Amino acid sequence: MTDTTLSALDTAEIARAYREAKARRAKRSAILKHIFLIITSLIMVYPLLWMLASSLKPDNEIFGDLGLWPSEFQWQNYWAGWNALPVSFTRFFWNSTVVTVLSVIGNVISCSFAAYAFARLEFSGKTLWFALMMMTLMIPYHVVLIPQYLLFLNLGWVDTYLPLIVPRFLAGDAFFIFLMIQFFRQLPRELDEAAMIDGCSPFKIYWAIIMPLSLPAMATAAIFSFIWTWEDFLGPLVYLNDIEDYTVPLALRSFISSDGVSQYGPMFAMSILSILPIILFFIIFQRLIIRGIAMSGLK
Amino acid sequence: MHKFLKRNFAGYAFLSPWLIGFFFLAIGPILASLYLSFTKYNVVRPPQWIGLDNYFYMFQMDQRFWKALQVTFTFVTVSVPLKLMFALFVAMALDKGIRAIGWYRALFYLPSILGGSIAVAILWRQLFNYDGVINSILRLFGGDGPYWLSDPKYSLWTLIVLAIWQFGSPMLIFLAGLRAIPQELYEAAEIDAAGPVRKFFAITVPLLAPVIFFNLVLQMIEAFKSFSGAFIISGGTGAPLDSLLFFTVYLYNEAFSFLRMGYASALAWVLLLIIAAFTAIAFWTSKYWVHYENERG
């Protein structure tokens, strides 16, 4: 009788000790993980913080200085950078904004059209077009760049924003079509069917049912489209020659090619301003961005 | 006929922007590029048919073509595995409900978003300058840093580090994949006294294989296409001594600095075939090492 009670107590004791040991081990490993993750985060963010600090340092303090606190804050770097090139950055930011806003609108409209056709409508040849659309996902931009350039050259579009904007209205980015198709397919089909019985046209269904229900997908596409267009360098590099037309990345590039001028502070100041919209977008829309990647494997 | 039209009208109406784009901006240009690759064309005079001469020249005489291939392959084969290993390592540390995961995830992903920007390329140039931050750090540890930007032995490392810095997006995809691995497998392995290394190779790697494979293909294609970092850091030319002559940089220069549109088109086709071949190899070999959950063996 007593024996069995004792052994029951023992088992409970052992089990508790085992659980405690396991919890201690888990805690220790969690602490180690946090140390590793914090160090990694610091290394990841350090270059960006260094750039921010350098944008406020006097020029002679920038190179090789590891510190993140300027000896005195040179706010005039921002003023100097803004006006350092023959054309002021007001113009460059305006140009970038025009190109980006129109590109985002074009992408969302045209890609959602295509995605709606692929996900919800029946028409002959759909399978073939779908396969071709998926194939275009793989084509590197460099391969179509030269013929596209020649086409736009013949149309007289070089040195305008049309080569950067018109393709966006023609659903040029298959990534977004793919992302939207994935989303549209999750919406219940009964909605379309009910609307069809009520006599809604396919456009009405797209506009009044699919689009309002797909705002997260549209927002995700819009955000990525914004970020990629804002950062795009190759497109503007090829199509824009007049400094008046430059977008912000092209303007930044002229900072380093305008030789000999040691304007590191102002250069970093403008670099910081150029990525500021992206960082703000990232902070505001972080959730959507991260879900978008998990959903589609965007870069 | 009327019925046919009616049945297909809506579909093609919605598809029409994409269809126009597909013909004029995708398939049309690809075929035009194939045609141009058999010609000599400098934009001013009409294209002149020269058969396979561009390709003969490329493979037999053009040292810079081989150099560009070598630089690009080195970049892809070094940066992609390092980036993926690091991404997986961090993803595993983040897995299983660690505190503040949202913060870490956001911080690690931020470089992926900014990495392609000119601002970061400019920053990188300064960091790796001989008098720059990287060498200052090396000096703290008593080392003496090389001339990263002007010594062809080291210059590619600046871009490899830049690529690894952007490990955030494969990391997010790994995280999603790790979540899908059933916990019971690890618990069962623990009962069998399997250590962390054993668990990693016996459970994590095989079950994560489809995700690893997906990331591998995606990152390889991205690496082959990368342009602006190499362009900015090398001053647009692939310098020093062509050690940063990425294939895309070479192609850009042939087309838009020297107006050799025919030759550049041939280069573009080689790039397309290389990317297609690598993707095909990745898909083909995947059946030997990728096992999807719902199939056996």
Structure, described:
- The complex is a heterodimer of chains A (299) and B (297).
- Chain A is mainly α and 299 residues long.
- Chain A is built from 13 helices and no strands.
- Chain A has 2 domains: 2-76; 86-296, Orthogonal Bundle (MetI-like fold).
- Chain A has helices at residues 2-54, 76-82, 89-120, 126-136, 141-154, 162-169, 174-186, 189-197, 202-213, 215-231, 234-239, 248-257, 264-296.
- In chain A, helix 10 (215-231) runs antiparallel to helix 13 and helix 12 packs across helix 13.
- Chain A is flat and about 90 Å long.
- Chain A starts with a helix and ends with a helix.
- The mean pLDDT of chain A is 88.
- Chain B has 297 residues and is an all-alpha fold.
- Helices cover 72% and strands 1% of the residues of chain B.
- Chain B has 13 helices and 2 strands.
- Chain B is globular.
- The chains are: A mainly alpha (299), B mainly alpha (297).
- At the A-B interface, helix 1, helix 3, helix 4, helix 5 and helix 9 of A face helix 1, helix 3, helix 4, helix 5 and helix 6 of B.
Task: List the keywords.
heterodimer, A: 299 residues, mainly alpha, MetI-like fold, flat, B: mainly alpha, two-stranded antiparallel ribbon, 13 helices, 2 strands, globular, transmembrane helix (chain A), cell membrane (chain A), transport (chain A), MetI-like_sf (chain A), transmembrane (chain A)
Q: What is the number of strand segments of chain A?
A: 0
- Our estimate of the beta-strand percent of chain A is under 5%
**Which spans of chain B of ≥5 residues are poorly predicted at pLDDT below 50?**
none
Low-confidence stretches of chain A: none
- Secondary-structure element series of chain B: HEEHHHHHHHHHHHH
The fraction of residues in strands of chain B falls at under 5%
- The CATH topology of chain B corresponds to MetI-like fold
Transmembrane segments (chain A): 31-53, 92-116, 128-152, 164-184, 205-230, 267-290
Organism (chain A): Devosia soli
Subcellular location (chain A): Cell membrane
Membrane topology (chain A): Multi-pass membrane protein
